[in-house]
Amino acid sequence: MRAFTYQRAATPAEAAAAAMRNPGAKFIAGGTNLLDLMKLDIETPSHLIDVNGLKLDKIEPLQDGGLRIGALVRNTDLAADARVRRDYGLLSRALLAGASAQLRNKATTSGNLLQRTRCPYFYDTNQPCNKRSPGSGCSAIGGFTRHHAILGVSDACIATHPSDMAVAMRVLDAKVETVRADGSARVIPIADFHRLPGNTPHIEHALAPGELITAVTLPKPVGGVHIYRKVRDRSSYAFALVSVAAIVGPDGTGRVALGGVAHKPWRVEAGERDMKSIADRLLAGARTTPDNAFKVTLVKRTLAAVMAEAKKG
Ligand code: SF4
Predict the structure, then answer these.
(1) Beta-bridge partners for 215
(2) Which residue's CA is minimally distant from atom 7 of ligand 1?
(3) Are strands 67-70 and 212-218 parallel, antiparallel or unpaired?
(4) What share of the chain is helix, strand, coil (3-state, %, to 5)?
(5) Which residues, at least 6 apart from 230, have a Cβ–Cβ distance to it below 8 Å?
(6) pLDDT at 250
(7) Among 146, 157, 199, which residue has the most ligand 1 atoms within 8 Å of its CB, making it the best to mutate?
(8) Distance from Cα 129 to the centre of ligand 1, integer Å
């Protein structure tokens, strides 16, 4: 690990301004992903800004019936919150499907959104990787790709986003609240928060340098049957091969997002007008490799299982 300086920030604006003053800085909260990346020399921040003291650890009701989740709410606390379990059940289930109990106790809402891919070549600094070292090439293309993306891929990167929580938030139409280095606030719809790789896979989200997530808001509950189904190689502490987050109404209408298949949670709102053909709409344009072509079938079967479960109520 390389040497770095460290400070504790007292307010969100102070944290964002400190990041602006230190171009090599990173925010740290739970550190469950960042510290691993620093030990491997993949992330090399010259300065760490500890945001744990910013008092962003509350879950509060909104006047419109929704919920504001502070950026520092731990994954365990969010999954266990009675309002989340009652009104946003798929979010609670997605959180509990992620990582391990120890990691969920430390990991935060904002850190979960910002966690980086688990592509093995990204973690192997002996291998070219456009995400870790822009322009160096992609070792996954032509390599071992069982876990890699089949949707929204580019010739520069075929990595997936590893979060379960973000897939549930995509279905719930969450919004990400931030503060910029100049102290001004903005709101980013979750659909626009994560990016596809294109030619710049190292740019993974819509945050500007020094911009800090302060909260995630959920609109008022929409009812329906909430399901989060994750298919993985073992039953805990494993990333999704494919996951499905769904809200299905009594008339069969619904919303669906996929995890484990793209660089961001994958949702096609236009396809939700006819849920019978939703699998085809979600999978349109899929680009597979011999290793991960099974994901097309796996998505279809997982979706079918989710719809059957929803019918039972
Ligand atoms: Fe790097 Fe993306 Fe290629 Fe993996 S898929 S090696 S993260 S560029």
Answers:
(1) 70, 177
(2) 122
(3) antiparallel
(4) 30, 20, 50
(5) 94, 97, 164, 240, 242, 243, 259, 260
(6) 86
(7) 157
(8) 5
